[in-house]
Amino acid sequence: MNDYAGQHEVVSENLTSQIIAGLARYVQEVKQERKSHFHDGRKAQQHIETCWKQLESSKRRFERDCKEADRAQQYFEKMDADINVTKADVEKARQQAQVRHQMAEDSKADYSSNLQKFNLEQREYYHTHIPNIFKKIQEMEERRIVRLGESMKTYAEVDRQVIPIIGKCLDGIVKAAESIDQNTDSQLVIEAYKSGFEPPGDIEFEDYTQPMKRTVSENSLSNSREGKAEPKFGGKSKGKLWPFIKKNKPPPPPPASASPSAVPNGPQSPKQQKEPLSHRFNEFMTSKPKIHCFRSLKRGGAAPEDFSNLPPEQRRKKLQQKVDELNKEIQKEMDQREAITKMKDVYLKNPQMGDPASLDHKLTEVSQNIEKLRLEAQKFEAWLAEVEGRLPARSEQARRQSGLYDAQTAPTVNNCAQARESPDGSYTEEQSQESEVKVLATDFDDEFDDEEPLPAIGTCKALYTFDGQNEGTISVVEGETLYVIEEDKGDGWTRIRRNEDEEGYVPTSYVEVYLDKNAKDS
C-alpha cells in the first residue's frame, strides 16, 4: 500500500513540475498579451472617435460660415439698392461680404480635407487595424489550445510511466492478501493476552455437622462465607463466583476467621488465603492491552501536533506547510502592528484626531500575538529540522521509482505504541491523513473573462501623505482627490482608485471620505 501511494505521489509531483508550473507562467503571459491586444483596440477606437469629432467640428464651422456669408451678401445687396446710403457704407458692406465668402471657402476646404481624412481612417480602422487585432487574438487562443493539448499528452506520459510499477504494487497487495492466515493471527492475539493463570481446582466439601476447624480452599473462586455469628466479616465482603464482571478496583480480600463460632478478635488461621482468581481476572479485564498496534487500526483518531503519525516524507510536507502558514500569520500581524504604529504617530502629531494612549493596548496585544506565533514557528521548525535530518540522502523520487520500499520493522510488539507502524513495518494510518499536493486549478475559460472594475461609490481627499510600500497599498499625497471604490470594513483600510490602472488601500484615518448618496443607499 505504501508503494502504491508513493507512485501516486510521483505522478502528483511530476504533474506539478512538468505541467502546472509551466501552465501558470503561460497563463500570465497569455493574459498580458491579451491585455496588450485590447489596449491596441481601445487605442484604435479612440483615434477613430477623435477623427469623427474633428469632422463634425469642421462641418459645423463650414455651415456657420456659409450662413454668415449669405447674411453678409444679403446685407450688401440691401445697402447697394438703398439710394440713401453713402458710397462708403456700401463699399464697407461689399468688403464684409467678400471676407465672409472667403471664410466660407476656407471652411469648405477644411471640411473637405477632414472628410477625406476621416473616410481614409475609417477604411483603415475597419479593414486593417481591427482585423489585425482580432487575428492576433485568434492566434493567441489557438496557441493556448495547442498548449493545453500538449499538457494532456504530458499527463498521459507521466501516468503511463508508473503503470508497470503500480501493476507490481497491486500484485504485491494481492499476494499479501492471499497469504493472510487467520489461525496465526488468532494465535498472536492469544499469546499476547493470555494471563498464564492455572484453572481452579475442585471445591472441597465443608461439613458443618462436625465440630472441626474449617479452612478455606486455596483454589476456590470465592471467599469463604462467614457465619452469622460474625457480623463484622459477613454479608458484604462476600466475593462473586464468576470472573466476568467489571470493576475499576478489585476489593482487598477479607481476613479468614478461625472458626464459625470464633469471636471477632480471635486468632486468625495460620494459613494465609491467596488472592481470589476473580480479582486477578478483573484486573486483567480492566488493564491496558499490551499490543497497542491493534488500537492503531481504529480510524479517525486525533492526529498529534507534530504529525508523528505520518511517514517521514509526508510528515515533512505537513510540517513545512504549517511553518509557511505561521510565517504568513506573523507577517500579517507585523503589518497590523506597523499600521497601528503609523496611526499612533498621526495621533501624536494631531491630538484632535484621537488619543494615542488608546492604541497602546492593541499594540501590546499584537506584539504578544507575534511572539506566540514565533515560538510556535520555532517549535515546528525544530520538528522539521529533525525530520529532514532523518530522511535518506537520495531523492524521494528515486526511492519511489525503484518500486520497493525498505521494510520498517519493529523490534518488539510493545514498540508499536506510537500507532504509526505495525509489526510488519507497514503504516496503518488512513491515507486521508497524508499530505496532498494541492494544485491550483486553473479554468482557462474563466481566466480570459473581462474583469469589470468596481464602480466608484464616492470621492475622498487625502489629509496626509501616505507612502504605500506594502503589497496592495497605494501612495497618496496630501490634498489629492481620489475615487472611493470600497468602504472601510472595520479593519482601518479604505480601497481607493486614482485612475483606470492604479488602485489600492490607504489607512482610513489618512483620508476624508465623501460617499455618493445613491451608491450608499444601494
From TrEMBL:
Gene3D superfamilies named among the record's database cross-references: 6.10.140.470, Arfaptin homology (AH) domain/BAR domain (1.20.1270.60), SH3 Domains (2.30.30.40)
Residue span(s) of domain F-BAR: 1-185
Any Gene Ontology biological process: signal transduction
Family: Belongs to the FNBP1 family.
Coiled coil: 316-343
This protein's GO CC annotations: cell cortex; cytoskeleton; plasma membrane
Species whose genome carries this gene: Molossus molossus
Domain SH3: from-to ranges: 455-516
Cell membrane recorded as keyword: yes
Domain (REM-1) ranges: 309-386
Protein name stated in the entry: Formin binding protein 1
Compartment(s) where it occurs, according to its Swiss-Prot or TrEMBL record: Cell membrane; Cytoplasm, Cell cortex; Cytoplasm, Cytoskeleton
Taxonomy, superkingdom: Eukaryota
